Amino acid sequence: MTCFSFLFRRRLDSSTNQPFEVEEEFGIHNVKLYTYKELRSATEDFSLANKIGEGGFGSVYKGQLKNGNLAAIKVLSAESRQGVKEFVTEIKVISEVEHENLVKLYGCCVEDNHRILVYNYLENNSLSQTLLGSGHSNIQFNWKTRSKICIGIARGLAFLHEEVKPYIVHRDIKASNILLDKDLTPKISDFGLAKLIPANMTHVSTRVAGTIGYLAPEYAIRGQLTRKADIYGFGVLLIEIVSGRCNTNTQLPVGEQYLLEQTWDLYERRALVGLVDISLNGDFDPEEACRFLKIGLLCTQDTPKLRPSMSSVVKMLTGQKVIDEKKITKPGLISDFMDLKVRSSEKTKSESKCTSSYNATFSSDNLDNSTLSSGTSTSATMTFNPPYDRSV
Ligand SMILES: Nc1ncnc2c1ncn2[C@@H]1O[C@H](COP(=O)(O)OP(=O)(O)O)[C@@H](O)[C@H]1O
Ligand SMILES: [Mg+2]
């Protein structure tokens, strides 16, 4: 602590030379440090017109950097602000991770109280706004594109889980964290961000800690965070991409509201093909589409250990590995554990076809006190402090 306040004082004392100072103190030579002034001018003073989104960590702005590059500039909210040292440590980790299917971090700004991340700007927005959005997008997601997107996401996640040392659990795999570049190559965003949340921040939004429909039951209920929880989220996403539907849609008839439940039902009735997006007009290989759906089911099995690793998922998606159908067991569904009271509501998000809306408060320690109540917000809050479990 003494050491930290010393560093902080030094940083403030020599504000004119601050970027160099931080770099010298923490040895982040490979991370570009932006001045607040530079980011302010890139975003025209963080103008509303340049705001492109708002997530659990803060607001995101589109900006043009001095070198002409377009950037997505993520201003972390006060809650998710950390001390300089912790922040810079995590930034170093994130910036060293590079892969075709991961969003590139250009650098950051750690001036005064500001904690800002600067990412490569992806022109084709996120899967939640395009594929699962309410039809504002001009992108045609034909089968070939969908298959390329699924395989790309799987490769990005396999890289985080199995090649990066120490490995990274993403913790928030969902459609809005899959961005598309101009060629529709998928890029996973926000990896490593979960660790930027200060440890004492136990009351976090699910927009930070995972969104309900993508949450593996063991993570939501017991706070067990492993790579297998990410794989569960990936399985849900895979089924969303093939079906073109959100994981939860309370405007649909009962029995069809939860995508995963419906997928299992159709699988048992040997009618999985009925789930494939009708907007493909039948222009897809049914064997391949059903294979993808079965892989989605393999990834969302209730028992974490039964879920395949991401590298085997890649092999199964590309056809290098055969799926053993006998191995598919029932998916883990949060609704099996809790009485989720979900009420349909008016569309609260114009960008999305997902119409579920609930506020959930439950604690990982005390299931009996779990309460889930309907509300009008699309975000949910949960109270738990999930440990990183590296055993699975
Ligand atoms: N690198 C990026 N390029 C383009 N748009 C981005 C980028 N990063 C984030 N966005 C946009 O900003 C929105 C908010 O992002 P974020 O704060 O991560 O919240 P969430 O992931 O919960 O939507 C995203 O949904 C996306 O539309
Ligand atoms: Mg995000």
UniProtKB/TrEMBL annotation:
UniProt KW ATP-binding keyword: yes
Stored Gene3D superfamilies: Phosphorylase Kinase, domain 1, Transferase(Phosphotransferase) domain 1
Source domain of life: Eukaryota
Residues of the Protein kinase domain: 46-323
Chain positions recorded as ATP binding sites: 74
PANTHER family, sorted: CYSTEINE-RICH RECEPTOR-LIKE PROTEIN KINASE 3 (PTHR47973)
Protein name: Serine/threonine-protein kinase
Origin species: Herrania umbratica
Lineage: Eukaryota, Viridiplantae, Streptophyta, Embryophyta, Tracheophyta
